[in-house]
Amino acid sequence: MEKLLDFFNININFDVIPMEWYLVVSTMMFFVGIVGFIIRKNLLAVLISVELVLNAAELNFAVFNRYLYPGALEGMFFSLFGIAIAAAETAVAIAIIINVYRNMNNIDTDSVEQLKH
Amino acid sequence: MDFGNFLIMRQEVGLMLIFLIMLVLDIFASEKSCIRKYFQPVACILFLVHTVFGFLFPSEGTAFGGLYVTSSLTTWMKHILDLGVLFMFLQSGSWLHSTDALKRRAGEFYVISLATLLGMYIMVSAGNLMMLYIGIETASLPMAILAAYNKYQHKSAEAGAKYIMLTSFSSGIMLFGISFLYAAAGTLYYGDINLTDGNFFTITGLVFFLSGLGFKISLVPFHLWTADVYEGAPTSITAFLSVASKAAACFALIFALYQAFGSLVTAWKPVLWWLIVITITLGNIFALRQKDIKRFFAFSSISQAGYIMLGVISGTSQGMTAVVYYLLVYLFANMAAFGIISAVENKTGRTDFGVYNGLGKTSPVLAFVMMLAVFSLAGIPPLGGFFSKFFLFAAAAQQGEYLLVFIALLNTVISLYYYLLVVRAMYIRPAEENAEKVNADTYNKISLLVCTVALIAVGIASFIYTNIDALSFGIR
What is the rounded CA–CA span in Å between residue B54 and residue B150? Predict the structure, then answer.
């Protein structure tokens, strides 16, 4: 690992990971979620993409709290509440997806298209 | 622990009590017991008591260290939401008794709607962005269940799926925006957020935040769910969605923009300006080509949302008054229209424009109420809709937004045309063969009567406007 980093001439102090690294991860999760929401054809995959977006935001809260405002815990609490709400959301969404399956016998987004124009 | 906090949020506590009573009733009433027949009157009476109680003993103050804020103004807003739920309860009776499957689950309906209302209360009373987010989710998750309430109907299942997916997606984006705002401000309390410079975090966060709430209000780039969900959901739920859900999101938006982001007014004003222009115009243009009356009212409600934002953009206390007053009048008009739509749907099972041909001959009273509602939505003078639109335009014009008001006025003329299409169908077009008289059930009749009286009275009774005006505030 160190040889590899030396080769690319990267200096990292592994004791303190810079905040931007976390932000790169969360931003990537966010955009992967958005792209997945648009292009995936299965309702469950769409749900997973939505969860990625939510988790990206929750990661952001934790990171901003830890690095920018370590004096208070507002961001950490927000991530905790966010996780709980995301769980509730998944429960409701899966119940509705099961209902869609009962009505249409599959959960493709293409079959959910009776209502348009 | 200080239990006095709960006394301050007594409206929410009262709502929770009704919620529990209905839940226990639903659990312990057996399949064939006679209590099942009386769910609707019990729910309506309990809810009426709650509303009157809240009206007589309004609470003021902050609780839980500023997370929860209540004042006379939020009490007014909550009463508007209360009225929406009350009318929904009154109008949903014959729909809930239409099939055996629905009859068995009648209790659930009241419980879930009350949970939605609790979320809306929290949205209105939020003093912190986290509370706002919790409120939005508490309101929108049960709303998705309500949209999918007709389990065995293809359309309803589809509406529920579309609503839950899009609502969680939009709240995910909003959450991402709030996290950026937190990074910029270092706090989530409305009163403490003091952002003045427009750096990357602030602007991105604000745009994402606006798009999340814009989804709930169905402003145009975020409106794509509206027509589909409105058409697929059961008619009483559509009425609730078009009135209470929109009203709660508007109140939450106006509080957040005035209190938390008042210092960023130069950043959000241009965004809102363009949103208003495309919302009103596209809503009107799409309403012109609709064949289904529920989709028609969906697009009409989109353009109405654009008008409401005229009050928000003004940034003054006059604008806030106009928004609250407009939503009050809009509630009566939309609820009257949807009461008739659900009566007609229960009779014929259809929601296309064809059923409304000749309604003026077969059932003149219903047609007359529909005409009043539609005229109020269009803004014809003696009705409340004219005054509420006038106040909105006046509030925007006072801040020098003449071009915006001019565009809105032009759109009012377009909207008059398509609202008159409904009136033409009812009074000029000949009735379809074997069209029968449509009768609303007793509860629905009560709701229609109240709405009709209110549509005429609210515009004339000036004390309502002055009362709200005394409580409103602008950007500090």
Answer: 33
